[in-house]
Amino acid sequence: MAKDLDDVLARAVEVVGPPNVVTDAEVVAPYTTDWTGRFHGTTPAVVRPGTTGEVAAVLALCNAARVPVVPQGGNTGLVGGGVPRAHELVLSLQRLRHLDAVDARAGQVTAQAGVTIGAVQSLARAAGWDYGVDLAARDSATVGGTIATNAGGVRVLRYGPTRRQVVGYEAVLADGRVLRRLDGLEKDNTGYDLGGLLCGSEGTLAIVTAARLRLVARPSHTVVALLAFDRVDDALDAVGESRRCVDTLQAIEFFVRGGLDLVCETFSIPKPFAADHDAYVLLEAAAATDPTPALAACADRLADLADVAVATEPERREALWRYREAHTEAINTLGPPHKLDVTLPPATMSTFLARVPDVVAGVAPRARTFLFGHAGDGNVHVNVTGVDPDDDRVTDAVLRFVVELHGSISAEHGIGTAKRPWVHLTRTREELDVFRAIKRALDPRGILNPNVLLPADR
Ligand code: 2HG
Ligand code: ZN
User: Fold this and answer.
1) Among 9, 141, 168, 265, which is disulfide-ready with 182 (CB 3.0 to 4.6 Å)?
2) What SS3 state is found at 306?
3) For the chain, first and last CA: distance in Å?
4) Residue 3: per-residue pLDDT
5) Where is 425: in which H helix or E strand?
6) How far apart are CA 369 and CA 14, in angstroms?
């Protein structure tokens, strides 16, 4: 194997050029640790192809020699899915950075895998459009990575997750064959939806090298309202009520007192209101006409609303968003967190939020639990600090609690290596058999991201 690996690397150098097969420990280091600092690994090399043809040639070499590969985009994943945990080769797609002009007639754009979400948004906005996916990691997260993880973000409520934006794709199979369907046909009812299958496949079936993305109309008026409540249940009622009476909502986010305190302390920013409150809901509405009257009317109907702040100007809107978006960064200052990204049905959300801190305390009495997320999607980000990175007891307890309450163990971050041992809690034996059959059909030698998503073979 070592000789095969040396051969593969030597031949990869011929394909991508010497500067793009990186073995220098210092340069390699950022590719082998995830953003949170929880997942580490080692790799024989980071290979950085610059074209789809180079991706294909490198994969063909790896496949022939059975060298396992971990594909990586902006390395912003939160479940250890892009980090080489078992000394796999890292295939970085960052050099695939070509972004076509917006196709204004189609309302679509073609982007290579390494283009950031921020770049797609900027290009779309300059042409009067927008991209439906938005997330805090926008300036590092890439098109390829967000497709591989079917990333969600803050506007799933309105536009759906990444899968809904993908009209076409280009991807390389494990053996180097290229699948390409980039014509942007909105209707193409000719069999299996292979592009859809790649969304959320976490690099296990093929390597996405480009995508044709659907753009959305850009509303001219955007308003953000931050609502404060003294009981979490009042905040949950407000989520339902705002969905019913404001038809222009694009985000409904939430956080609670502990997370807000940490954000304000960490970044020395003033609290949003004179008094502290237990729960906060952030609403963003956007439309061709000013949504403020609809938001105000909705707020008036909320009998238990303790306070409210409204922002129409970009700077002030960003300041309100910061209370929510800065949670991830603030929590990271406390040490590598355990991140449990889960969804609950509306019927059990209240029980989950009330009891999950005790579930955590039951196995990790000194841990701190933070709860925030995308309330409009039933998506809670349970972040737990003060637990050893390899201690799985918190994950086990929380994920079992989620399943008991009929939720899902991953809402938008995926399974990766972090949740692989628990995937059977949320997928049936029959479903996992189908997953394995698909994996074998597309990657018979099992070289593509072999240590994520699917439970180890029986
Ligand atoms: C967010 O919604 C991201 O901000 C990150 O999905 C969540 O840090 C997290 O757990
Ligand atoms: Zn999120």
Assistant:
1) 168
2) strand
3) 24
4) 77
5) none
6) 50
pLDDT at 1: 62
Nearest CA to ligand 1 atom 8: 328
What single-letter amino acid sits at 370? F
For residue 270, with 0-12 CB atoms within 10 Å meaning exposed, 13-18 middle and 19 or more buried, which class applies? exposed
Pocket around ligand 1: residues whose beta carbon is below 6 Å from it? 136, 328, 339, 341, 381, 383
From 332, 338, 372, mutation site for ligand 1 pocket: most ligand atoms within 8 A of C-beta: 372
Question: How many CB atoms within 10 Å of residue 428?
Answer: 9
Tokens of 374: 């995308």
Q: Which residue, by CA, sits nearest to atom 9 of ligand 1?
A: 328
For tokens 């590969």, name the residue: 69
d(CA 3, CA 26): 24
What pLDDT is attached to residue 434?
A: 97
Q: Give the CA count within 13 Å in the CB-facing half-sphere of 6.
A: 2
In ligand 1, which atom is closest to the CA atom of 328? Answer: 8
Residue nearest to atom 10 of ligand 1 (CA): 381
User: Which ranges constitute the DSSP H helices of 302-375?
Assistant: 314-325, 327-332, 346-363
Q: Where are the beta strands (DSSP E) in 150-263?
A: 166-172, 178-181, 207-217, 221-229, 249-256
Look at residues 253, 261, 238, 256 and name the one whose alpha carbon lies nearest to residue 321: 253
Question: Quick check: 129 and 242 in contact, CB under 8 A?
Answer: no
- Strands across the sheet containing 379-385: 305-311, 221-229, 279-287, 249-256, 368-374, 379-385, 338-343
Q: How far is CA 275 from the centre of its chain?
A: 33
Using DSSP's 3-state secondary structure scheme, residue 221 falls into strand
**Within a 10 A sphere around the Cβ of 160, how many other Cβ atoms?**
16
> How confident is the model at residue 457, as a pLDDT?
66
Gap between the Cα atoms of 458 and 318, Å rounded: 49
Task: Find all residues with CB under 8 Å of 75, minimum gap 6, and list them.
Answer: 30, 31, 34, 35, 82, 83, 140, 145
Q: Tell how many helices (H) and how many strands (E) occur in the chain.
A: 15, 16
Point out the ligand 1 atom lying closest to the alpha carbon of residue 373. 2
The rounded distance, in Å, linking the Cα atoms of 148 and 209 is: 11
CA distance 46 to 72: 10
**What are the residue ranges in the chain where pLDDT is below 50?**
none
**The two three-digit tokens of residue 95, written as one number:** 């050099």
6 Cα: distance to centroid of ligand 2 (angstroms): 40
Angle at 220 between CA 107 and CA 249, to 5 degrees: 90
Ligand (nearest to CA of 382): 1
Q: Max CA-CA distance within the chain?
A: 71
Single-letter residue type at 97: R
